[in-house]
Amino acid sequence: MPKLKSFFSSLYLQNRFFYGCMAVIFCFIISFLFPRLFFASKLIFLIFCTVTLLDILILYMTKTGIYAKRRTPEKFSNGDENEMYIQVENYYTFPIYIDIIDEIPEQFQVRDFSIEKKMKASSSLELKYMLRPTERGEYTFGKLNIFVKSVLGLASRRFYFDNQAMVPTYPAFMQLKKYELLAISNHLTMYGIKKIRRIGHTMEFEQIKEYVQGDDLRTINWKATAKQNQLMVNQYQDEKSQPVYSVIDKGRVMKMPFNELSLLDYAINATLVMSNVILKKQDKAGMFTFSKKVENIVVAEKRSSQMSMILESLYNISTDFYESDYGRLYADIKRNLKHRSLILLYTNFETMDALNRQLPYLKGIAKNHLLVVIFFKNTELNDLIENEATTIQEAYDKVIAEKFSFEKRLIVNELKKYGIYSILTTPENLTIDAINKYLEMKARGMV
Q1: With the CA atoms of 344, 345, 346 and 348 taken in that order, what torsion angle do they form, in degrees rounded to the nearest 10?
Q2: Exposed/middle/buried for 155, CB within 10 Å: 0-12, 13-18, 19+?
Q3: Which of 156, 145, 78, 159 is closest to 113 using CA atoms?
Q4: DSSP code per residue over 286-350
Q5: In what order do the strands lie in the sheet with 421-425?
Q6: How far apart are CA 163 and CA 175, in angstroms?
Q7: Using only C-alpha atoms, what is the Rg of the chain?
Q8: Over the stretch 332-381, which tens digit does the pLDDT of each residue have?
């Protein structure tokens, strides 16, 4: 009985079978009008039943017709295209047609996933498809369903494999190596970013070299110049082991979506990449988050396990929808950060009023630390600003959009008045702009 139940649960009749049934029924209908065709109709019906049974028989004559396996990465990189592989082996001694339906995790909201392929007899193949997660957490795959058809195509047999495979989704770790190489080689100009010439102003001596235009005249080594009979300068390298903290605002202002990711996710991805670049530059990388209180604290260090600690801390961060307490942030920084540090504050201000409420605390932080406030352009306003208004409502919307865009620039100028550095960027350029600002400050000896 269980075998019979298993047989019927795995057997699926195809459209070609139902088309054949319709043709047979049509033949019998015609035979009512033309009785001479009745025998031919019965013969067609018999042939059709025989072919159908033959098709089912050849599909089930092999106990294990195929084998398939889903190969998942150890973890997904949030916001990136992640590779998925499916390996299929055909144990049938004749060509088959397969339809692969993978039960994708519900977070992707994919309900029409299907891959159709033809396989030769006793062959194997490997298929690849891409998945782009847009939120962190656990992604659970269901069954890997394979529907097998013969050349006749009247029925198919279902096989399923790999039930309940779970893959965790972490911040965008796939970007680490990409931006690490760009930062080390200073090739961020490939992405349209202004190239920064690194000029050491610290007392950490590196070498004596020939003077070239643009070198600091204050670094001329007169003794070496006299010996070589040409201008020689001392070259200094950046001071190392400076503490750099990434501070993420996880209040409700960071829940704003952009390209399926929230601003909080963009800040988390940028923090992970920035921390890796900071460590490669021999500085100390640390991070913490804040809203009603300061949490997820990773003290700035340069140890080998630092990236793992930061990655695990970033994995579980989510917004609490409160208004962030900058007073608490200022008090915690003053109490716990005793050494002057570079603080990269990821937040968002939409209006001058929002900034003015928090400005006293930002000024307090900037007195003892090098503060960079990173906030976002509202790219949704660009279409309203650039499009020509044809109605009164569109003109009103355009004026409001221009007002908000202008306030963003006012915020930058207001921060600059108090010696607070800022980055006004789009979400997709956040990581590049943050790295570029860090390298610029390193080049100027500010860090």
Answers
A1: -140
A2: buried
A3: 145
A4: EEEEESSSEEEEEEEE--TTHHHHHHHHHHT-----SPP-HHHHHHHHHHH--S--EEEEE----
A5: 294-301, 284-290, 243-249, 342-346, 370-376, 421-425
A6: 30
A7: 33
A8: 999 999 888 999 999 999 889 999 999 999 999 999 999 999 999 887 77
SS3 149: strand
Pairing of β 421-425 and β 370-376: parallel
Residue closest to 243 by CA, chosen among 295, 203, 298? 298
Residue (of 177, 169, 342) closest to 246 by Cα position: 342
Query: Is there a contact between 350 and 324 (Cβ–Cβ < 8 Å)?
Result: no
Residue 386 is encoded by which pair of tokens?
């650039």
Query: Which pLDDT band holds residue 191 (cuts at 50, 70, 90)?
Result: very low
Whether the CB-CB separation of 265 and 78 falls below 8 Å is answered with yes
Among candidate residues 306, 303, 295, 247, the one with its CA nearest the CA of residue 271: 247
Instruction: Look at residues 403, 442, 170 and name the one whose alpha carbon lies nearest to residue 280.
Output: 442
CA dihedral 344→348→352→353, nearest 10 degrees, is -110
Averaged pLDDT of the chain: 86
Dihedral angle of Cα 388, 390, 395, 396, to the nearest 10 degrees:
-140
Select from 333, 357, 354 the least CA-distant residue to 345: 333
Residues in a beta bridge with 183: none
